[in-house]
Write a structure and sequence with these properties.
Layout: E1 2-8, E2 16-19, H1 22-37, H2 43-49, E3 51-55
Antiparallel strand pairs: 1-2, 1-3
């Protein structure tokens, strides 16, 4: 069984990133927050938002 990581933005935005690579999820989410929402979250803040999804 593999585990994917994911971060979802608020429902009004609809952004979601999923990957097997935690670093990719964090980087893409950070870029999204900066460009779309003019926010600059830390990687620790983003890690708190991250969920694990078990895949087959």
């Amino acid at each position: 069984m593999m585990v994917m990581k994911s971060i979802e933005c608020n429902p009004d935005c609809g952004f979601m990133i999923r990957s097997h690579e935690q670093e990719e999820v964090l980087s893409v989410a950070k870029i999204h927050a900066k460009i779309q929402h003019r926010l600059n979250p830390t990687f620790n803040e983003l890690k708190k938002m991250m969920k694990s999804i078990k895949t087959i």
